[in-house]
Specification:
Elements: H1 4-12, E1 13-17, H2 21-38, E2 62-69, E3 74-82, H3 94-98, E4 116-124, H4 132-141, H5 158-173, E5 177-182, H6 184-191, E6 198-199, E7 204-205, E8 209-216, H7 217-227, H8 229-235
Parallel strand pairs: 4-5
Antiparallel strand pairs: 1-2, 2-3, 3-4, 5-8, 6-8, 7-8
Length: 254
């Protein structure tokens, strides 16, 4: 049976690597709009960013991607992958600096840092972040048809589209492991598509309640292949995109 998600993804979304000054500015302005204006998260007060762009020191050694909504032509989401600082390869990732990681679950000192990134600034503008239940309600009111011109019922959630970009970027860059610090609700949403990361520490007060997470990409994809084959076909482009094979897996990795 054809996987309609593949067609829907190509029709409604485009992943763009933000590798020019102009595209980086788009990413920083989108982050400002989402974090400082829409969500108003602690630590992201709009007054701190008078130029309307949210940036920090980690952007210097991060790779950035943008999610473009093809029907409207608008950028609606973004994410960044924080790589080790080339000027200090042993420098801790933000998740190591701002949360408490349980060494019984993952010993980050044993990670091959050149193959590890921290997923960060995983955001989607509010108009596009409605949950499935809200979209169902819209469909019911419209007599079973979405009133949204993008027909997003064919595609589960735009956050999944951002995840496609993250996985494909990691495959290109030889990345095998993820770290992240995020709200548990976001990890639960990712879990709907077998994309959840493993919690490796307690909640911390870091721009609101956040928890540290870890995952080995190959294990995430193996789980997805077993439990949700259509999603696996989407994120790997029907198996054409495979993660870099790790040379070494930490003894204490989940």
């Amino acid at each position: 049976m054809p996987n309609d998600m593949l067609g829907a993804f190509d029709e409604y979304f485009e992943i763009i690597t933000a590798d020019t000054p102009e595209l980086l500015e788009q990413a920083f302005r989108l982050r400002y709009l989402a974090l400082c204006i829409e969500e108003r998260l602690p630590g992201f007060e709009a007054a701190h960013y008078p130029n309307g762009m949210e940036t920090d020191d980690h952007d210097r050694h991060a790779h950035h991607l943008l999610l473009k909504h093809r029907p409207s032509g608008n950028f609606i989401g973004s994410a960044r992958l924080i790589f080790p600082d080339p000027s200090n390869s042993g420098k801790p990732f933000p998740v190591e600096q701002h949360t408490q990681i349980d060494p019984a679950l993952i010993d980050t000192s044993k990670l091959l840092r050149q193959h590890t990134v921290e997923i960060s600034r995983f955001i989607l503008l509010g108009n596009y972040s409605r949950r499935r239940e809200e979209r169902r309600r819209s469909a019911t009111l419209a007599g079973g048809k979405e009133r949204d011109s993008s027909n997003r019922r064919r595609f589960p959630h735009p956050m999944l589209a951002i995840s496609v970009g993250i996985i494909r970027m990691c495959a290109r860059q030889g990345i095998t492991h993820w770290l992240s610090v995020m709200a548990p609700a976001l990890n639960r949403l990712l879990g709907l598509y077998q994309l959840q990361l493993d919690p490796v520490g307690p909640l911390a007060d870091y721009h609101g309640p956040r928890r540290p997470y870890y995952a080995e990409i190959s294990k995430v994809l193996d789980r997805m292949h077993t439990n949700n084959r259509p999603i696996w076909e989407l994120v790997t482009d029907q198996g054409k995109i495979q993660p870099f094979s790790p040379v070494y897996t930490p003894d204490q990795a989940l």
